[in-house]
Amino acid sequence: MSHLSAQYSSTLRVHLDDRPGSFARLAQAIGDAGGLLDAIDLVRVERGTKVRDVTLLASDPAHLESILAAVGALPGVEVEHVADRTFHLHEGGKIEVTPKTPLKTRDDLSMAYTPGVARISSAIAERPELVWDLTAKRNAVAVVTDGTAVLGLGDIGPEAALPVMEGKAMLFKEFGGVDAWPLCLATKDVDEIVAAVAAIAPGFGGINLEDISAPRCFEIEERLRGQLDIPVFHDDQHGTAVVVLAALLNALRVVGKRPEDIKVVLVGVGAAGTAISKILLAAGVSRLVGCDRMGAIHSGQAGLDARLAEYAKLTNPDGERGSADDVLAGADVFVGVSGPGAVSADAIGRMAEGSIVFAMANPTPEVHPEDIHDVAAVIATGRSDYPNQINNVLAFPGIFRGALDVRAAAITEEMKLAAAHAIAGMISADELGPEYVIPAVLNRDVAPLVAAAVASAAERSGVARLPAAP
């Protein structure tokens, strides 16, 4: 059975016969069905009956249905209704706009809106740079998607992508103090997406591209970066890359190796894989072999499109060929951003001593950690139920916070490297170990440290409009 999770938690309102052992039988039925009791509340007592709210955890929808069937079959138990807690959390959306100043009097209204606001608009018209000081632009990021590459769901459309974008906006605010706005576009056309984002850009201090399928995401980001004077950041690429590098820097400390001495095999050369490869090369890795379904990508390979041909020039300096399993022999690091079964446990066993495995496919990793725990020195995944979770939330709130703080015109490679080193530096030598190479995703100290490092790097890169704080 898969991992019990709060995402499949439900609250049952049940009527139980008021006699000894009634609740014990209910609890036993839930446990026998593989569920986990999470909370129990007494709602009221009626004649001969007690009404309780019972919250339980399941592993998936089918598992929840089997638990409900087991409960419904009990004598003396009536299920009044079932509330899916995840659906309940999303009712009415997860974000809202809250005014920063009260509107209690006519004077308040005359300053915040008409007629006083006309003075502010006139000032900005005369000096456009005042928009940064007199509007929310200084702290606003647009989270833009077309809904074509959402989580593990794929092309589900802009409406279905909206809950994910709302969640992203929550993370921006919660960890970076950034006001983020979901913008789900009803088009897959590259020209239309670029035009739409460029048109709304005046109201934002940064653009976060999200869940846009490859290869279109590369062109969209490149064109927008060329047109706009605010940061444009495709988080699926660069956020993932930053956190992977941070985890790798610490994992190398655990096994006593250096970036310039290792061989890395990466499987899945899409948006994330391409960005990870580039940041690892920038960090000093020289022997990196990228693989797709056809095996190792190498220079001179027939049938490569322009993007992969360029990728081949940057990687695989020894011209290795064969499957991912083949080229893993003797490798120091495996990075997976593909899907389950992309490599075998046997191939992991043929890696160099002190091997590092980042199997990040979600929800099922490329290779199960349980199958390699005795051969890999460090294992990381994209899941929260294993140690060392690679999660973008460690990167993007702090990166945008730092960029906004200095009004950066772009996010440079130096800023991304600074973010990775800041995340890695959160773990002291005393704390560092095989099961702790990356901070926990809920660590509130990460984003401020990343923001400070990114702001300083922006100033060094020449893209900051304001000086970084001391």
Key features?
single chain; 470 residues; alpha/beta; six-stranded mixed sheet; 18 helices; 14 strands; 39% helix
Kindly describe this structure.
Helices cover 39% and strands 18% of the residues. With 470 residues, it is α/β, with parallel strands linked by helices. Strands 11-10-9-12-13-14 form a six-stranded mixed β-sheet, covered by helices on one side. Helix 8 (190-200) runs parallel beside helix 9 (216-227), helix 10 (235-255) packs across helix 17 (413-424) and helix 16 crosses helix 18. The model has no long low-confidence stretch (mean pLDDT 95).
Distance between the termini: 52 Å
Strand line-up in the sheet with most strands:
11-10-9-12-13-14
Per DSSP E runs of 2 or more residues, the count of β-strands stands at 14
Hey, roughly how much beta strand do the residues contain?
Answer: 15-25%
Q: Helical content, roughly? A: 25-40%
Radius of gyration (Å):
26 Å
Mean pLDDT: 95
| Class derived from helix and strand content | alpha/beta
Low-confidence stretches: none
**Principal-axis shape:** globular
Instruction: Give the helix tally.
Output: 18
Largest beta sheet, briefly? 6 strands, mixed
